[in-house]
Design brief:
The chain is built from 14 helices and 17 strands. It is α/β, with parallel strands linked by helices. Strands 6, 7, 8, 9 and 10 form a 5-stranded parallel β-sheet that branches. Strand 2 and strand 3 form a beta hairpin. Helix 11 crosses helix 13. The radius of gyration is 21 Å and the shape is globular. It holds the Pfam family Amidohydro_1.
Length: 455
């Protein structure tokens, strides 16, 4: 059944227009967009293309608030946080993972994201034993997507070794581990669960990082991707850079680009510890930089060189990574404010033609769509109907129009500004809430109760 929306104003590929009629076909694609149209159908506030969340580890959402005490190490860091994460995940069952993922996906939708690229690496039972179904956990991510209606790009993770020196996986890593043959079996086993989802679901691959895959494994995973997306953590921490340099004689971006042809299939996550020449290599490649500013702040990763990268034509998108705080406008805000704090200026990511919020949103919408291998990113015929309608009655939006709407959404927005979201035509947020919020939240609360002593 077709849907007809009437947006008071909408951001289209050629700019803002008033009284925009948007028709959504039964297959979830936009079939027609008509500015200056008479009002009919569902009347909505300012309409935007709803971005893809390009990087998520769903299960980490349940850790929020559990890692903020200083341990025995003289300095807390990403690496001490990682040890806590390993201890936490050893408590998780498949039922837990599904309940957490559904809650995370619901929060993403209510925040304005229409889809997610799930960087999924929790494959095995505690202790590393395999499940009867190699894709048991991947299937739970798919089951959560079926419940929430989010658009899913599933990225099973290849994780082979405990470090760049090839050491064995440690106790906290064995739930992730596969050799190349085992990973191929996991990929094949995950396909039926993905195929049971609506037609906009996609699959890619994710060699975890240069710390966790061998060069042979990197080549194998790249081959398995075919034309699908390839995601990888890269140059997140200084210790990681030093480890790669010690083993290969090259910095992470240099080594990756020497090993495989990095092109527009790739999404390289974080890249907070890159030198200018590496930044320019990434910008020229056509790959997407996957930025997760809230998590990068939380983990002390560093600040991505967003201004120079964007000025060089680099592509980026936004993800929520550890999911401790899921908010599209807050990720935009944190990205921009990190540049301001570093360079002591204002409107750092604005351009001569577009305001800060508009430029960040445009680049992130296009970059997220590319990274998720999802035909969206603009409101135009033939695109998936991934749509975000802001609340026209939101106090902070009174009297705002054009790019100033996006600037206001970025600087002071939260989920209360999100009125409606469609994912490939599925109306997944109505009047600010997911229709299955009560049941999804109840299952998540039950899971948190069971995990209350996990750390």
């Amino acid at each position: 059944m077709n849907q007809v929306l009437h947006a008071a104003t909408a951001l289209l590929p050629d700019g803002w227009h008033a009284d925009v009629r948007i028709e959504i076909g039964a297959d979830g694609h936009i079939t027609a967009v008509t500015p200056g149209a008479p009002a009919e159908g569902l009347r909505i506030g300012p309409a935007l293309s709803a971005p893809a969340n390009l990087h998520s580890h769903a299960f980490q959402r349940a850790m929020a608030g559990l890692s903020e005490r200083r341990g025995p190490d003289p300095r807390d860091s990403f690496w001490t946080w990682r040890r806590l994460m390993f201890r936490f995940l050893d408590q998780l069952t498949p039922d837990d993972v599904q309940a957490i993922a559904a809650f995370v996906q619901m929060e993403m939708l209510e925040s304005g994201f229409a889809s997610v690229a799930e960087f999924h690496y929790l494959h095995h039972a505690p202790g590393g034993a395999g499940y009867d179904d190699p894709a048991e956990m991947a299937g739970r991510i798919c089951a959560a997507a079926a419940q929430t209606g989010i658009g899913l790009t599933l990225l099973p993770v290849l994780y082979q070794v405990g470090g760049r020196d090839g050491r064995a996986l440690g106790p906290g890593q064995v739930r992730f581990g596969n050799d190349v043959d085992g990973f191929a079996r996991l990929m094949a086993a995950a396909r039926p669960a993905l195929d049971a989802l609506p037609r906009d679901a996609r699959m890619g691959v994710a060699p975890h990082s240069l710390r966790a895959v061998t060069d042979d494994g990197l080549h194998a995973a790249t081959a398995m991707a075919g034309i699908g997306p390839i995601h990888m953590h890269l140059a997140e921490q200084t210790a990681e850079v030093e480890e790669v340099q010690a083993a290969t004689g090259a910095r992470p971006v240099e080594h990756l680009f020497a090993q495989v042809p990095v092109d527009d299939r790739w999404c390289l996550i974080h890249c907070t510890q890159i030198e200018p020449h590496e930044r320019d290599m990434l910008a020229r490649s056509g790959a997407v930089a996957g930025l997760c500013p809230i998590t990068e702040s939380s983990l002390g990763d560093g600040i991505f060189d967003g201004v120079a990268y964007a000025d060089a034509g680099g592509r980026f998108g936004i993800g929520s990574d550890s999911n401790i705080r899921i908010s599209l406008p807050e990720e935009m805000r944190t990205l921009e404010y990190s540049q301001r704090l570093r360079d002591r200026g204002r409107a750092m990511l604005a351009s001569a033609d577009h305001s800060t919020g508009r430029r960040i949103f445009d680049i992130a919408a296009a970059g997220g769509a590319q990274a998720a291998a999802r035909g969206t990113g603009t409101i135009a015929p033939g695109q998936w109907a991934d749509l975000l309608a802001l609340n026209a009655d939101a106090t902070d939006l009174i009297g705002r129009s054009g790019d100033t709407l996006l600037d206001t959404f970025m600087t002071c927005g939260d989920t209360r500004m999100v009125a409606h979201v469609w994912s490939a035509g599925r109306h997944v947020v109505e009047d600010g809430a997911h229709p299955r919020r009560a049941a999804i939240t109840r299952a998540y609360r039950d899971t948190l109760t069971r995990l209350k002593d996990a750390l």
